[in-house]
Amino acid sequence: MAYQGSPKFTHHQCDKIGVLVTNLGTPDAPTTSALRAYLRQFLSDPRVVEVPRFIWWLILNLIILRIRPRRSAAAYRTVWTERGSPLLYHTADQAAGIRAALERKYGDDVVVEFAMRYGNPSISKGLQSLFDQGARKLVVLPLYPHYSAATTGSTFDAIAHDFTQRRWLPEFRFINHYHDHPAYIKAVATSIQRHWDEHGKPQKLILSYHGVPLKYLLKGDPYHCECHKTSRLIAEHLGLEKDAYMTTFQSRFGREEWLQPYTDETLKHLPEQGVHSIHVVCPGFSSDCLETIEEIGEENREYFMEAGGKEYSYIPALNATPEHIDVLVQLIESNLQDWHLDHNEDQRHALASAMETEHEQRKGRSN
Ligand SMILES: C=CC1=C(C)c2cc3[nH]c(cc4nc(cc5[nH]c(cc1n2)c(C)c5CCC(=O)O)C(CCC(=O)O)=C4C)c(C)c3C=C
Ligand SMILES: [Fe+2]
Ligand SMILES: [Fe+2]
Predict the structure, then answer these.
(1) Contact present, 122 and 325 (Cβ < 8 Å)
(2) What does the pLDDT look like over 241-266, one tens digit per residue?
(3) What is the pLDDT of residues 160-189, one digit of tens each?
(4) 182-315 topology per CATH
(5) What ipTM does the predicted assembly reach?
(6) What is the mean pLDDT of residues 127-156?
(7) Which of 140, 219, 315, 353 is deepest in the core (most CB within 10 A)?
(8) C-alpha distance from residue 9 to each of 6, 16, 85, 235, 362 (Å)
């Protein structure tokens, strides 16, 4: 087994802290073939679909990958922009915002990259870039406020898998979740309040989260509980009574039962219960993407209006707003604590040349 080394390392370089910001990933293009490649990688992940491998291989290859890519490509075309997929450019903008903020404070002692769990840019590419820039300590921030084995857990797997191929591992911190972090709660609540200042307050606020199969909750995944906690904290922040808000779960996939209540079914029935004006916010999505822009912004709006709803609006994700960058920088900084940053250039060079000499002498001896 040949482990990948760090050939670019020199003793003159200072140890840097690398920050890898990750997100789910998105297809390279809104085409059937790009969707097939993306969905194959995504849906082959045993963290995402917990069905016995051989049975799932048959279902995936004989049914899903023959039907879904074309349908999903058409959906992606409705949200695609000049900068590509919204998920990709929002994540790129978030990383740029974090990089600028950390650079102001730490100069080039902290380096920042972003990567995607599925598709491009890959996690291994992001890590390689950080190591090439001299990172010897690493903070990974998956942009998922809520922990689920299917998302955060799977991101950890990808990092760990990359590490199994490397010779020199960094010191490593992994941000597990931030669903109840006061700064995150405040940022989401403030964005809702701002939306209300502009558009007025609706009868009900719907907090819609991406669903997962019910069996994941029953097996002990904390995702469901964390989503409910986020909703409660946001409602408390906004001073909402219990009947003024509701937590729902969207983006169901396949036939088995997922977390309930389902967003689409809920919206189809709210008007008959006397609720005609709603705003929907998706606190689990750190960036707008297909599942918010198309599914919540378009599809679910139609369900609600067709059922007799009168007013509907989607409150955008935090994306790369300064308030969101602040939250993410706070999360990262609290994970840098006690990591020594050597700002003293002279001292660093003196130490490095002493080490270089020693290194050369040792090499000389062993020749
Ligand atoms: C098949 C099971 C799926 C599970 C479990 C799942 C969990 C999960 N997903 C997100 C966040 C996102 N998912 C997105 C798209 C998406 N999700 C699934 C399936 C599962 N997700 C599919 C098949 C797709 C692809 C789109 C489609 O074909 O409909 C996205 C958007 C990506 C984009 O490019 O815009 C996000 C974001 C979370 C947070 C989660 C569990 C906690
Ligand atoms: Fe998903
Ligand atoms: Fe729960």
Answers:
(1) no
(2) 999 999 999 999 999 999 999 999 99
(3) 999 999 999 999 999 999 999 999 999 999
(4) Rossmann fold (3.40.50)
(5) 0.93
(6) 97
(7) 140
(8) 6, 12, 35, 50, 17
The full set of domain ranges for the chain reads 16-178+321-345, 182-315
The span from the CA of 101 to the CA of 54, in Å, is 47
Q: Is the pLDDT of residue 55 over 70?
A: yes
* Nearest residue by C-alpha to atom 17 in ligand 1: 251
The 3-state secondary structure of the chain, one letter per residue:
CCCECCCCCCCCCCCEEEEEEEECCCCCCCCHHHHHHHHHHHHCCCCCCCCCHHHHHHHHHHHHHHHHHHHHHHHHHHHCECCECHHHHHHHHHHHHHHHHHHHHHHHHEEEEEEECCCCCEHHHHHHHHHHCCEEEEEEEECCCCCCHHHHHHHHHHHHHHHCCECCCCEEEECCCCCCCHHHHHHHHHHHHHHHHHHCCCCEEEEEEECCEHHHHHCCCCHHHHHHHHHHHHHHHHCCCHHHEEEEEECCCCCCCECCCEHHHHHHHCHHHCCCEEEEECCCCCCCCHHHHCHHHHHHHHHHHHCCCCEEEEECCCCCCHHHHHHHHHHHHHCCCCCCCCCCHHHHHHHHHHHHHHHHHHHHHHC
**What's the mean pLDDT when you consider all of the chain?**
94
Q: Chain-centre distance of CA 358, in angstroms? A: 44
Q: Is the pLDDT of residue 365 over 60?
A: yes
Closest atom of ligand 1 relative to the 27 alpha carbon = 34
Return the CATH class of domain 16-178+321-345.
Answer: alpha beta
**Pocket residues: Cβ below 6 A from ligand 1:** 24, 26, 43, 48-49, 68, 72, 85, 87, 144, 148, 150-151, 210, 212, 223, 251, 253, 284-285, 289-291
Predicted structure pTM score:
0.92
Lowest mean pLDDT among 89-93, 314-318, 324-328, 337-341: 337-341
